[in-house]
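sorry for the late reply, my laptop died twice this morning and i had to redo everyting from scratch. anyway the thing you sent over, i finally got around to it. pasting the sequence first so we're on the same page, its 202 residues, then the predicted structure underneath. double check i copied it right bc i was rushing
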Amino acid sequence: MNETPASTLAIRDLADALSGAFPRLDATDQQIAIATHHLLTRGLPASVDAIAIAADVTPAEVEKRLDSWPAVFRDSDGLVIGFWGLTVAEMPPHELRVGDVKLWAWCAWDTLFLPARLAAVLDVRSVCPVTNQQIELRVAPDHVEAWCPTASSFRFSARSGALTATSSRASAISFTSSLRARVVSSGSRGILEPSCSRSPTR
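ok and here's the structure:
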């Protein structure tokens, strides 16, 4: 791999910046959320019973949370197919792989926080919405291991009010093939550069 200069913004900084996008979670909430994400990494819908077993809680507790939380998507059988940024349903352009399993993220930001949630390194493929250029990343739980093309950036909207898990503004969060990422609001709030140390080779 070719070395590229490390940039100034770590994944943890992005996580802190957007921490208001999800509900506040108590210990049981966290167990259920983590269990749901981990079960989806099998590439299959997750049942309430399976989530309950994985989280060591009752099915009723799982149902209560899934019914009250935003951005939980279930199929006609009641199985969870999408949860807080991760889905087993094909949803281009943000494709990711956990081992040999292909999954999809709802937006570019999700591909950066999911590795920490899953405690795994994810291979990500996306497309710049402006140039249609393919962008590839290898993302660890606390940093981006590889980023190609190296001039790519991560851009998101930070307009008045916090982003929420169901906000339509999440769809504006994307990777671009421009040199830097900007926080776009009623006025520019600054320049963000992705944390990156290497460019991947095939």
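The longest strand covers residues 122-127.
thats about all i looked at so far, will dig more tmrw
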